[in-house]
Design brief:
By secondary structure, the chain is an alpha/beta fold. It has 18 helices and 24 strands.
Length: 512
Amino acid sequence: IRDRRYVIGVDIGTSGTKTVLFDEKGNAVSSFLVEYPLYQPKIGWAEQDPEDWWNATYTSINSVIKQSGVNPADIKGIGLSGQMHGLVMLDKDGNVLRKSIIWCDQRTTAEADELTEKVGKERLVEITGNPALTGFTAAKILWVQKNEPELYAKTAKILLPKDYIRYKLTGEYATEVSDASGMQLMDIKNRCWSDEVLEKLNIDKNLLGKMYESCEVTGKVHQEAAKLTGLNEGTIVVGGAGDQAAGAVGNGIVKTGIVSSTIGTSGVVFAHMDNIQIDKEGRVHTLCHAVPGKWHVMGVTQGAGLSLKWYRDNFCHAEMDAADGMGVDPYYLMDKQAEKIAPGCEGLIYLPYLMGERSPHNDPNAKGVFFGLSAKHTKYDMLRAVMEGVSYSLNDCMSVIKEMGIDASEVRASGGGGKSKLWRQMQADMFGCDINTINVSEGPALGVALLAAVGAGIYSSVPEACEAAISVKDTMKPIQENVETYKNYFPVYQNIYKSLKPQFSAAADLNK
């Protein structure tokens, strides 16, 4: 009998690093999570220490191997997924020069404007697939150039979070197309660094890692890393992917027609594209996919699960206490209450812009709103309105994707919010199509483990690997009368933002 073969997926997230050991069919054998802090030296700033990621990585790899009792010789490859956009700067000896400025840091508003000015608004979208965004890496590099010039002068390499882990495992300075797309330094169409953008921003191309496709082998585990991790020296490490593309592979979003709708703290609508398309208005992001030679488009709602958590923490203490006593999740009780309210909440509409909004408005000044509140409404109407508001905002992203002519005939729900039957039903009703859930929930870690399985030759392509590991578990069909209700309310939802946009801006000026 042929030896069993295994792969490892490491997901370097914001709150912690989760490592999962899978068999070649994508079944999780063991997993381990190590958490670490987030530093906020000033309001709106967010940093992490890359050494924390590395400690979490080798500790968790070591733990999953020990827990599982698998022979390290049977582990055929490793895939890395990570929080995107973070800036890691190394000196010539490979030492970290400063804490990493991560994706949610908002200090770079002036630099994002500078980026637009230097490259040109239309040209920037044309080359990088996106308008200048504060979260993306390019603006962070400009900030360091301007504010920490001595430190910038010492910089020999610039890496993304997961690519720093690759360096620690293999000694290679490399990246791959899906995560690198989020740096805003890439020619997305040609899948390479953009000389034009780098020149205009005065960034030396030699600072950047070598570019690979996501399932290509980028290096092998060296002796020192083998000792720390318990892996065999020479184990391959593939490109891996940014967390969004990795999660999409883990959901099987690797061919046309299948779209994912994920509700985590933020919400993401993600669609695969065989041919590149870029929304000229920059309402959604176009990036390279983790499938070689393919792209993806995604819309991001900043305050998705965050809105429901905010509502729970502030208004649902009774539900939290009851849930505690019953040994169930408070969200389960909240779902039960919200289910009793009629769709549309009799005209009560919620705008989920608690953290500003990314897609399709790209407006940091936008704020949360309850609209249409009457004396008849209760806290449960407001609860349902929050869930509907998040769904409207995902539908806002979906509308742009459909407008681009992208096929969205099947939607797969994932993330914590995807566990809610009611939320899945709302999405089915608003999108007007079936919402499916799948047999696996490991998301990014599974996605990059499958990429490693392709790199190791276990599968011949990413779609083939997904076909073997992922299947649809259940389907939620749209309810026709709800479809009509939401179809009528959706334009009202969209117009509330348009009407309030100037006021959001005026209020922001007052709070400066």
